[in-house]
Design goal:
Keywords: Signal. The chain contains 10 helices and 18 strands. The chain has 368 residues and is an alpha/beta fold. Bound molecules: flavin-adenine dinucleotide and 2-acetamido-2-deoxy-beta-D-glucopyranose (2 copies).
């Protein structure tokens, strides 16, 4: 049995406040309605509204297309246990700065989590079964790490404007790393794990400057914690929402400033305010609107902007590719894989690059 979700992926760095302000600044003729409309109730929309609320701007209206908050943080009951069909890891922990999500997950909500062990050298499986020799794998990983370090230095030396940016593949070629691309199964899976798994696209189309070094890890630390709690990673969004939106005794949000099942289709804006239209033909007026939908939504015509967004903004929206990231969940009748510390994550080294390569982890059923 398998259940899969194909959703678009935006790197973790974008989790907080990736909102887009459309209204012009300056003095506004007060429009009838709230001061700010927030489109989308995922992590960024809920966080943006919380920030406004804490700054004293409580006259808000959040419009969410689906019947729930959380967006791409979402759990699903798969064959009796809750699995994460969207975000799964707290990325960037144990570094110089504290990842704001981490204390919420680990201390406040105490969601079940565990450190992802990146020492994959001992966990790469051959296509026809069995593990690769550790020393053989380690040499390949060391070489790939060394090239990445050179890439980080190069990246830092390029102009911040991105005018001289190159792809990860070009960087690898520059340092004479597998100039014809990785060829052996282990070379391929290490390359895939390093770049495609994190960036959702192959090195050929992945920007050097925006991914190497990865600011999430530089700022917050190299560690990643996998959230595997039956309550779901989405609990974090509910927790943040509950800090400023009214809830009932069961914790359910009952605040009239959050409207679900409201698909925004049109945003008209001028120096005197904004007018937001939804699929059910409602119209909401405000001084400002913040759009927190994914780039994937912004790259379509699902939301019509009137007038059209300025060219510079459209260019920025199209500068990033919205990748497809597919998770596949499988349930087996009995456990045949090794278990224990350091065994949770493993790679499969196919002769076809990227073919079911990504590490998987056995999921235990709900803990007592
Ligand atoms: C499969 C997958 C795995 C991931 N793994 C990780 C991970 O391990 N760690 C990590 O940190 N990140 C991960 N991410 C990324 C993370 O999930 C996102 O960066 C984050 O959840 C994005 O939050 P957001 O609020 O910006 O966008 P979203 O969560 O997409 O929220 C936008 C909201 O806007 C709503 N919306 C869209 N269009 C409209 C409209 N027209 N009108 C009204 N509402 C609208 C949507 O329904 C949604 O609720 C993963 C993502 C995916 C898809
Ligand atoms: C998932 O659904 C099944 C069947 O409806 C139910 O028995 C089970 O308790 C659910 N699991 C969780 C974690 O909610
Ligand atoms: C997470 O919380 C546990 C229990 O409070 C604590 O022992 C542990 O050190 C925390 N982990 C990190 C990385 O902060």
């Amino acid at each position: 049995m398998s259940s899969s979700t194909s959703s678009a992926l935006v790197l973790a760095a974008a989790v907080l406040l990736a909102a887009l302000t459309v209204a012009q600044h300056g003095s506004l003729a007060a429009a009838a309605g709230p001061r700010v409309i927030i489109v989308g109730a995922g992590m960024s929309g809920i966080s943006a509204a919380k920030t406004l609320s804490e700054a004293g701007i409580t006259d808000l209206l959040i419009l969410e297309a689906t019947d729930r908050i959380g967006g791409r943080m979402h759990k699903k009951n798969f064959s009796g246990i809750n699995v994460e069909i969207g975000a799964n890891w707290v990325e960037g922990v144990n570094g110089g700065k504290m990842n704001p999500i981490w204390p919420i997950v680990n201390e406040t909500l105490k969601l079940r989590n565990f450190l992802t062990d990146f020492s994959v050298a001992t966990n790469i499986y051959k296509e026809d079964g069995g593990l690769y020799d550790e020393a053989y794998v380690q040499k390949i990983i060391d070489r790939a790490d060394a090239v990445e370090s050179k890439g980080e230095k190069l990246s830092a030396s390029l102009p911040a404007s991105g005018s001289d940016d190159i792809s990860i593949l070009a960087m690898q070629r520059l340092y004479d790393h597998q100039p014809n691309g990785p060829a052996t199964p282990v070379d391929m899976v290490v390359d895939y794990f390093k770049y495609d798994f994190e960036g959702a696209e192959p090195p050929r189309v992945t920007s050097l400057q925006t991914t190497v070094p990865n600011p999430t890890f530089t700022d917050f630390g190299e560690d990643e914690y996998f959230v595997a709690d039956h309550l779901g990673y989405e609990t974090v969004v509910h927790y943040l929402a509950g800090q400023y939106l009214k809830t009932d005794s069961s914790g359910k949000i009952v605040d009239p400033r959050l409207l679900l099942n409201k698909v925004v289709t049109e945003i008209s804006y001028s120096s005197s305010g904004v007018s937001v239209r939804t699929e059910d033909k409602s119209v909401y007026k405000a001084d400002y609107v913040m759009v927190s939908t994914s780039l994937g939504v912004l790259q379509t015509d699902l939301i019509h902007f009137k007038p059209k967004l300025p060219t510079w903004k459209i260019l920025v929206i199209y500068q990033f590719d919205m990748a497809v990231y597919t998770k596949i969940f499988l349930k087996f009748p009995k456990r045949f894989w090794p278990v224990g510390k350091g065994k949770e994550f493993f790679l499969y080294a196919s002769t076809r690059r990227g073919y079911y390569a990504a590490r998987c982890q056995p999921l235990r059923s709900r803990p007592a």
